[in-house]
Design a protein that fits this description.
Blueprint (H helix, E strand, L loop, with lengths): L8 H17 L10 H20 L4 H27 L5 H25 L1
């Protein structure tokens, strides 16, 4: 059964998260252009992208696999946000905001995965 990804709250929230990550990484040091900045942005784009791609699959099992990729990217991003904060590339306040968004999405994706099984 195919899902319209644009109607999924997890997709909408992950788009917002990606935009926030892009904004927060805008002023990372030049030395991080191909390091944390690039990694964070790739992870942030990966979450809605995998959700969208998975929604096109004809079986819930296939869709669930893509949601697992999204979850992996969320955990990766969470780790990278922690490192970025410790390196003082991101403020504590921004870090907390992004981490809250990530945690919320992790719960939502997990809950949605349960409905697919």
């Amino acid at each position: 059964m195919k899902h319209n990804f644009k109607n999924l709250n997890i997709w909408k929230l992950s788009i917002n998260l990606a935009v926030n990550v892009y904004e927060e990484t805008e002023n990372f040091p030049k030395s991080e252009e191909f390091g944390l900045k690039s990694q964070l942005r790739r992870c942030a784009v990966s979450v809605p992208s995998n959700t969208a791609e998975g929604s096109s699959r004809t079986s819930n099992k296939d869709f669930n696999r893509f949601l697992e990729y999204s979850q992996g990217s969320l955990y990766e991003m969470q780790t990278q946000i922690i490192i970025s904060t410790k390196r003082k590339f991101i403020s504590e306040e921004s870090s907390e905001n992004i981490e809250n968004q990530i945690t919320e999405l992790q719960k939502m994706v997990s809950g949605f995965q349960n409905t697919l099984q």
